[in-house]
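Practice problem: predict the structure.
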Amino acid sequence: MSKDTPESKLHFLDYWRVIRIRKTVIIAVFLLVLVTTIGVTVLLPKTYESTTRIEVGKNQSDVPGLWERDTAVAYDPYFMQTEFQKIQSKEVLYNVISNLGLNEKWGKKYGVQGGLTTLRTYNLLLDKIDLKQTRNTSLIEVHVYSNKPEEAAVIANEIADTYKQFRLKQVKSVMLRGIETIEEKLVQQSEKVKEAQNRVDKLKEELKISDAIVTGSGGVSTLEPETVRKLENARIDAQTAYIQWSTMAENLKSLTPSELRQAAPTAVNDNLLSTLLSAQFQTEQELTQLKTEMSENHPDVIRIKSQLETINAQIKERLGGIINGLEARAASMKAQMAEAEKEVEQAKQRDIDATKKYRPYFIAKRDLETQETIRRAMMMKVMQERVSADLPRSSVVVVTDLAEPGLRPVRPNLPLNIALGIVVGLVVGVGLAFFIEYLDTSVKTIDDVEKSLQSPVLGVIPQNVGPLIAEGPDSPHAEAYRVLRTNLMFSRDDNSKNVITVVSGGAGEGKTTTVVNLATVFAQSGSRVLVVDSDLRRPAIHKVLNVSNSVGLTNYLLDQQSLEEVIQTTSLPTLDFLPSGKLPSSAMGILSSIRMQDFVKEVKQRYDFVFFDSPPIMGVSDASVLASEADMTVLIVQYRKYPQIMTLRAKQMVEKVGKNLMGVVLNNINISQDSYYYYYSGYYYDYYSKYEYGGSSKSDDKENTGREEGQDDKKVEVKSKY
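Answer:
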């Protein structure tokens, strides 16, 4: 199985090869562009430049105005571009034109009677102005160009001055228009304040509102809210006391008698209860002591027990009284709380009624205060803007450098134009060369053959190759044909195949030279070779070999003469030649006859190799007939001559008639220009060139001397006719 040819990638040397091949186009275009550039530069009128530099600031005064703080101005990325457009605006440049009288001056300059129109002068002036910003600064450079250096300086300075006056006037007019607008609004606001005051006075009179209810700096209030707050506080106190006493009474009632005696002194601060509890404690101690000394029936023991019982009864009675007192106090607090709630509700209702009654007055009073606040703010603003309008603003535009007449012209710039011409010429030339190369679809490289034809390249033949039979075996071109012969021999699969036809797609691709030289190389190697000029319409081999074409192949095929009579010898003993002969008009298609087939069989047996020259296969059917009769066919492709599609068609025609195409020969390669082919033909070409021009080595000289001595200047014997 044949493997697909790997896709080739472009290398730098491929581009360099195109440049070397198309160097004539590149040099021609380069010189044309360069000469044109120099000529135009010399013919252009001289232009001088003057530059003025101005510092551009925001619309700020030199000192802060009233109630203004000296703060940094926020960065505006569009500020400088906006100022560029203002400088080039009609409002600025029209004043420049008027101040300098440019309509009349330039009218005389351009030969316009009555002067130019302002619009036309404006357009001309725009073409002479170039604005640039000094990097990382707020400086603007105004460049003016003119054929008169003094005029350029005057215009640049006038533009800077006019722009400065324009900015100051613009700021002043904007502020004055703003002040006028605020003053108009102030008058309207004063009327609103007056109307609001009248409405307040009228409501005060209608509602009989005294000044006693007016508090602070004009605020209003009534007594009802304060009364509500006091009553609400009293209600909350009564509620708290009720909860406290009722809870305490309930807790004490839930205790057992012994727990009650222990808890009551801490819950209620009662002196009598404390005294009774203390007497109880002392009596119990005394009783305990007596019992240790006396019996139960002793009068003192009985007396002390009686006292103790009396004290316990008093304590119980006192505890009951305390609980009843707590309940009575809780009931009192409850009644007091209910009364307070009633009074609070009544006070709230009175406050609601008063609020409804005085609400129109309150609203009118607040509206009056709002309108008065607005009026005072507008008055302050008017005063502030008037002061700001009168402040100096010299920092808005500052002319830092005045324009001066230029000493030498800036246009045209001859060195720059020449450099640009060189660059543009090279770019255009190289681009055109690659474009032409792109449009050229002919065969250029071996890769083109392998890609488009899918056939091997048997040999690469250099340019300006002559007949090897005249140049001899030491010709610098002979090695290319030896390589072709070697590749052809290795390509054939049967040693009995010895009939070779050389074809091409179009005329002038080098078939005749290739046939003669290839046959010569075969003959020089010792093989008996016959060259047949089978291009019956345009025979040319007889001219190369300098023999007669009066009789030849056509005479033999028409059975007019025998084979021995038409075959001629050459200067090489092993090389014979069969001319085409004269082709009668009645013998068209003679190559496809039975006699032609017999002829091929005959010469195949007599000679080691037989070579047939043929007409272009795309135009004449004879080439297809010869390809079908031959054992091997070689396709000649002229380097950079015919489109690849034509070569592909020729290859397909060969395969259709015989399928014996051995490969392709690239012919007429300019190795000195196209270094791509140096590796195929350059080595031996250089080697034999050195030999030819006296650069051979001693061993080579010895070989040559020996060969010459062996020959002894003997003439080569001419072989007799077959």
